[in-house]
Amino acid sequence: MGYPIIFIVMALLAIKTAVAQATPEQNLEEMGIILPKLPDPTSNSYVNLVRSGNYVFVSGKGPLTHDSKYVTGKVNRDISLDEAKEAARLCAIHHIAILKQELGNLAGIKKVIKVSGFINSDPDFNDFPAVMDAFSNVFIAVFGEKGKHTRTAIGANSLPFNWVLEVEIVVEVTDSKRRMKEN
């Protein structure tokens, strides 16, 4: 005997609601993502992030691996497009680790506002959006609709430490449970 359509619709809505209510930390766990140990900034001239009101500005970060090394090289010369996409994914995880460390709770992120990506590439490469899609897709998977953002994706002749890409972000946070000091 088939189920009445109303029960099927209600079940699908319950599943959608449960998924929508998962915390970013639960989404990370479900995706099998373990946040890396974070290195200190490479200079005393800047900090990882600054909070101004309800906005958090995260410094440009590179693609950090779990063994605390960075993915380096130029796209289309030293590494492939697929390797660059994986580096962008690692860079997104690096940013999320910084936010988690500083905010204490990723649920406090109200909206990812802006992502600016700089891709270290040879002059013939121009598929920068494909590289940055891998970064953006991690944020959308972890934060849902809150993870959708405006974005810039441009090529660079050179980046610090020969990183394959460097990304900076701006997020809006809630006012509750302020863990970090306001700068």
From TrEMBL:
Signal is among the record's keywords: yes
Superkingdom: Bacteria
Record-given protein name = RidA family protein
What is the protein's species of origin?
A: Flavobacterium agri
N-terminal signal peptide: 1-22
Q: What is the lineage of its organism?
A: Bacteria, Pseudomonadati, Bacteroidota, Flavobacteriia, Flavobacteriales
Keywords attached to this Swiss-Prot or TrEMBL record, sorted alphabetically, are: Signal
Residue ranges of every copy of the Endoribonuclease L-PSP/chorismate mutase-like domain listed in the record: 46-170
What PANTHER family does the record tag this protein with? ENDORIBONUCLEASE L-PSP_CHORISMATE MUTASE-LIKE DOMAIN-CONTAINING PROTEIN, ENDORIBONUCLEASE-RELATED
Q: Which Pfam families match?
A: YjgF_endoribonc
Keyword rRNA processing among record annotations:
no
